[in-house]
Amino acid sequence: MAKFEKIEDLIGELYRYRKLFSGMFDKRMSPIQEEMVVSLVEHDTEKLERLAAFDLLFRNQGLISLEPRLQEFFEEFMEVDETVHVLYIQENLDQIKKNQSYYLKENQPRKRDQYLVKIKKHLYRISQTTLQNIKALRDNTDETYKTETNFEIKKEKLTDIRNQRDALEGVIKAVDRVLQDDIFFKTAADAELQLIVHRLRLALNDSIHNLIEIQQQIIEYLNHIEKRVHIVEKVLRLKMLRDKHYLKERTNFYWIVGANQDLPLRKTEGFLTRLSIQGMLNEEEKRKLIIKVREKQQNQRLLAQNTAGSISDEAFNDRKVIDSVFNYHALKRVFMGKNQDLFSFVMHHQFAEEISINKRIQLYCRLASLFEADFTFSEETGRFENLEYALIYPASNSTTANPQTTNTIKDPV
């Protein structure tokens, strides 16, 4: 049997064939043919032989599976193990007692520290294994009751789970007694050990409460099974008597059924009551009522047609700024009373809200285009930053200026 000389080689092998191990782990509950996984190793069966030689795979008559130790390793870290490992806790507890004895008898500080590290490791394993066992017990209980169709097998499995629960409770109480009664843990001066012991006690306390709930659930499931089996046995007995035509003579079945007035559960049935057409025509009150209902239905249809569609969520989240709407005629009237050019007026006019420079320039162009007949366009030009604009005045206040001169305007404050 081959073995890895370095831990790096083992990790590298697991990583190199990670798709193979992952696929086989997912199908670990069913037999796997080699033909099903050979594509994951590039159709090279020698690679499967090599992995089997290193005890990473197990091959047997065309079937292949993960090596049990590797599968248990994956299940433990993925927390999907369905097995309740009561003996694991007992083994760790025995190792704690041994290392504790060695620790108390050892005089060399270095060796004492080694024994203390082992004690901490086993305490941590007990905590992890206990929590995993509780989860496995609960999952197995629910799965057995909900998925097993054979009543006898279901009952036997639940009884076995109850025995596992009792064994787990016993070993948990044994660990708790050691932690409470042993002087070693009461007088331990190591802070890390005290923290591990404290967390373990909390885990054990939670586990005991969970075990009580699991026990109640198992008892309830077993009672349901007993009741169901009893009912099924009665039904089969009645069927046998009916087939042999003894049901009426040997039982009072028909008398009990005849005296039973219970109604079976059925869906609610709706009854349609149709009004008499002649009665509706002859009675004035019914006719008015029908007309009123008809008008109401028509109004509802009109409301449904006029109802606006729902507002989308994007409309509430839209943060676009709505363009400002200017009253051009009011601005034109104000400008006509001013003794300044249109561009200066627009750039320095006080609006209700802050207007950007680009908006003011657009407004200047818009006013010049709309009210061209009311304005006088001079041959002079002005300059604003890198822009050159025409000097436009009100028709009644046109100003004559030297055509060679150019005005300059500053940024509005």
Question: Can you tag this structure with a few keywords?
Answer:
413 residues, mainly alpha, three-stranded mixed β-sheet, two-stranded antiparallel sheet, 64% helix
Shape field: extended
Distance between the termini: 90 Å
> How do the SSEs run, as a string of H and E?
HHHHEEHHHHHHHHHHHHHHEEE
Computed over alpha carbons, the radius of gyration is: 46 Å
Poorly predicted runs: 318-323, 398-406
Strand content: 5-15%
* Sheet with most strands: strand arrangement: 4-3-5
Q: Major beta sheet, specifics? A: 3 strands, mixed
Please count the helical segments. 18
* Total DSSP E strands: 5
Q: Classify the secondary structure makeup into a structural class.
A: mainly alpha
Give the fraction of residues assigned to helices.
55-70%
Please state the average pLDDT score. Answer: 81
Give a verbal description of the structure:
This protein has 413 residues and is mainly alpha-helical. It has 18 helices and five strands. The relative contact order is 0.04. Mean pLDDT is 81; it is low at 318-323 and 398-406.
What secondary-structure arrangement, pairings included, does this model have?
Elements (H helix, E strand, L loop, with lengths): L6 H10 L1 H9 L7 H4 L7 H9 L3 E4 L2 E4 L1 H11 L7 H20 L3 H39 L3 H31 L1 H4 L4 H53 L3 H4 L2 H7 L17 H6 L1 H23 L6 H5 L10 H9 L5 H7 L8 H14 L4 E10 L2 E8 L11 E3 L5
Parallel strand pairs: 3-5
Antiparallel strand pairs: 1-2, 3-4
Helix pairs in contact: 6-7, 6-8, 7-8, 7-10, 8-10, 17-18
